[in-house]
Amino acid sequence: MKYVRPLSLFHELLKTSAINQGRFLGLDVGDKYVGLAVSDPLNKIASPLSVLLRKKSNIELMATDFQSLISELSLGGFIVGYPFDRQRGAPDAVRVKLFVDDLCKTGKLEGVKFTYWDECFTSKNVELLVKPLDLHPVHAKSIMDKFAAVGILQLVYLWQGYLDYVNRKMKLESAE
Fold first, then answer.
1. Residue 176 lies in a domain
2. Which biological process, per GO, is one annotated for this protein (predicted)?
3. Residue 79 is part of a domain; what is its CATH number?
4. Mean predicted lDDT score pLDDT of the chain
5. Helices assigned H by DSSP within 21-136
6. What does the pLDDT read at residue 142?
7. Model pLDDT, residue 155
8. Is 135 part of a structural domain of the chain?
9. Which tens digit of pLDDT belongs to each residue from 151-174?
């Protein structure tokens, strides 16, 4: 896996032919689960996808799952939620970095480009929306993880998700 700055990742994707342009996979990395969301083929809208169980012992399996998703969904890059509002040494930040490092060490995702995007309050916002639904705790957790990943890719209240930011930025650049 290779880290790319957020706008660079989007620009690189636009340079490829329309047929080969990929979609983005949003990842919300938690202690026990990784919520996944995927963008539409035009990279304008994010939708919830699934939740993967996260254990140190299943990182190889997760990397294989990501390989399958890359080919099935024509993914062009990963947008990994990162807690920029906290200190780098904070447990949440360390957890995300270790997860990405572990994926890299598998060697199964060579050439896959990724960037970090602020996950500020994504889980909390989704929790506030899901709580009144009075769902079974397991079902509610699964929904929260998937939609937190959507929040990383898409607009979350006043904050911009990755897709909204890069699309607005591209519109501004083309107007100049």
1. no
2. rRNA 5'-end processing
3. 3.30.420.140
4. 85
5. 59-73, 91-106, 122-130
6. 85
7. 52
8. yes
9. 888 754 334 677 877 887 888 888
Instruction: Evaluate whether residue 147 is within a structural domain.
Output: yes
| Other C-beta atoms lying within 10 Å of the C-beta of residue 142 | 17
- Give residue 157's domain range: 2-171
Please tell me the pTM assigned to this model.
Answer: 0.81
Share of the chain above pLDDT 70, in %: 91
Residue 15 lies in a domain: yes
Tokens for 10, please give them.
């989007």
CB 96 within 8 A of CB 148: no
From residue 142, alpha-carbon distances to 15, 29, 35, 98, 148 in Å are 35, 13, 8, 22, 10
Q: Looking at the DSSP assignment, which residues form a beta bridge with residue 81?
A: 117
C-alpha span between 32 and 76 (Å, rounded): 26
pLDDT digits 0-9 by tens, 93-131: 889 999 999 999 999 999 999 999 888 767 777 788 778
Domains in the chain, number: 1
Strand locations in the chain, DSSP E?
2-3, 23-29, 33-39, 46-53, 75-82, 113-118
| Distance (Å, whole) CA 75 – CA 1 | 13
Say if CB 81 and CB 149 are below 8 A apart: yes
User: Are the C-beta atoms of 62 and 52 separated by less than 8 Å?
Assistant: yes
